[in-house]
Write a structure and sequence with these properties.
Helix content is 35%, strand content 19%. By secondary structure, the chain is of the alpha+beta class. It has two domains: 125 residues, Nuclear Transport Factor 2, Chain: A (Roll), CATH 3.10.450.280; 280 residues, 3-Layer(aba) Sandwich (Beta-lactamase), CATH 3.40.710. The strands form five sheets. The protein has a six-stranded antiparallel beta sheet with strand order 6-5-16-15-14-13, sandwiched between helices. A four-stranded antiparallel beta sheet has the order 1-2-3-4, covered by helices on one side. Helix 5 crosses helix 6 and helix 7 packs antiparallel against helix 16.
């Protein structure tokens, strides 16, 4: 069967779609899809080692590209070719259907402009050809369709986690699938605590905004007013303001660097432990000139919260966010402590044919940039508290999830919140991803929907999020 499907893919590309033999010889999509559908881990390593550009391998390492490929293989399953588009701006574009989730995607393979035209990057993007809702879904039908979808993904090993969909306080759907611990076969449940990745940035931003709202801090205050200069990297660090930190325009980069990867993760129990990673780096640009999503910048904002409040970052967030929002199962739990219902994270990696537990890659305790834990129900409570202005007043709350392009921030970012959707369907929240971690909170401000997806598996949230958005577009 594998030989037959391989023959069909090759025949499809080489005859009906690429009549020009010279052009066909330059196309990578046929071989890429063949490896995606049929290739083993070793096949993937060989293929990407031969076909990825030297620049990308030198920058990110072959292991990073192989890891992305293997996790995408696992998430999407076999790809069925629907349509091939002409080359555009150095990219091949093939519309495919995922066998695991039955959704359409555009496989984009971007290549070097110069010979030998190897791969710069590859990605599966949602197909833009979306049909308008043809039916009206009841709550019962929404539950049935979403449950069937998630259960199917779980059977394919393409999703492990918890999902909650609500409209305001009314929970329309919640379910958990997969294993919190694969070794001991401990199943995920609604109370399972999942790592949030970067979703913690929302809590850090709210903490700073609370202090600004109370008059204890100002947007234009300089970072050097609160942090010892020995923390600051080379460059114009003295010009960095609180607003720069909130909008990712400070020039700080990412402390998840080679030094972090090679370090003993047990040392990261407080913010002080991150000092060598940040102080020995350099600013990527002058503060305010442009934007760069920055874990280091958000950690520095956590230091400011500590200095101004007189409390540890963790105590401040516990008192002023988790307690106020009724989030009893949320926190930055130390991974070597005994914490009930804590999910391990799993992913595919270059060095193993099986699942890899990501615990040894993580800091022992989360930081203001991410790595805390929560549950889908706690994040539902957080969303209600936020939108009912229980954490910040109306002015500061709405300011938090309004885009800040006037400060050279990204068009999709406010203060610690992602900003998206359309004029009559604004969607705010945040995502989070790391090795063995994938998470998303979407708050639909105009329709009242709240969607929480937490997974202890890499690169699996996007199809679930997309399916939910399609279903709630039809919900009445």
């Amino acid at each position: 069967m594998k030989t037959l499907s391989l023959f069909i893919v090759i025949l499809f590309f080489s005859t009906s779609l690429f009549a020009n033999n010279e052009l066909a010889n330059k196309e990578l999509a046929p071989s890429f899809i063949t490896i995606f559908n049929e290739g083993s881990r070793l096949d993937v390593i060989d293929y990407l080692s031969d076909h990825m550009s030297k620049g990308r391998i030198d920058t990110y390492g072959i292991d990073a590209h192989v890891g992305v490929f293997l996790n995408n293989q696992n998430t999407f399953g076999n790809l069925k070719v629907v349509k091939v588009s002409p080359l555009s701006n150095g990219s091949e574009r093939v519309e495919v259907i995922s066998n695991n989730n039955k959704l359409k995607y555009n496989l984009i393979i971007n290549k070097e402009k110069e010979a030998p035209h190897k791969i710069n990057y590859f990605t599966l993007q949602d197909s833009s050809a979306q049909n308008s809702p043809e039916k009206t879904l009841s709550t019962k039908a929404l539950k049935q369709e979403l449950s069937s979808f998630i259960q199917h993904l779980s059977k394919e090993d393409a999703f492990s986690g918890s999902v909650l969909v609500a409209r305001g306080k009314d929970v329309l759907f919640k379910d958990s699938v997969g294993f919190a611990n694969k070794v001991w076969k401990i199943e995920n449940i609604i109370d399972t605590k999942f790592s949030l990745g970067s979703m913690n940035k929302m809590f850090t931003a709210i903490s700073a905004l609370q202090l600004i709202e109370k008059g204890k801090l100002k947007f234009e205050d300089k970072l050097v007013q609160f942090v010892d200069k020995s923390w600051l990297p080379k460059g114009d660090s003295g010009a960095i303001t609180i607003r720069h930190l909130l909008t990712h325009t400070s020039g700080f980069g990412n402390f998840f660097n080679d030094e972090f990867n090679q370090s003993n993760k047990e040392v990261y129990r407080d913010l002080e432990a991150y000092k060598p990673l940040i102080s020995e780096s350099e600013l990527l640009f002058n503060p305010g000139e442009r934007n760069r999503y920055s874990n280091s910048g958000m950690l520095m904002l956590g230091l400011v919260v500590e200095k101004v409040s007189g409390e540890s970052y963790y105590d401040y967030v516990q008192k002023n966010i988790y307690d106020k929002a009724n989030m009893p199962n949320s926190g930055s739990f130390e991974l070597d402590s005994v914490t009930g219902n804590l999910a391990s994270g799993y992913l595919k990696r270059m060095h193993s044919d099986g699942w890899v537990d990501s615990i040894y890659t993580r800091a022992i305790k989360g930081s203001p940039a991410g790595g805390g834990f929560s549950t889908v129900e706690d994040l539902h409570q957080f969303s209600i508290a936020l939108t009912k202005f229980q954490l910040l007043g109306k002015e500061f709350t709405e300011d938090a999830y309004t885009e800040k392009t006037k400060y050279n921030s990204a068009f999709w970012y406010g203060y610690g919140f992602s900003v998206g959707g359309e004029a009559n369907n604004r969607i705010v929240g945040h995502g989070g991803s790391y090795l063995g971690v994938d998470a998303r909170l979407d708050i639909h401000l105009d329709t009242g929907f709240i969607v929480v997806i937490l997974a202890n598996q890499s690169d699996v949230v996007a199809p679930v999020r997309r399916k939910i958005n399609e279903l709630i577009a039809s919900y009445r």
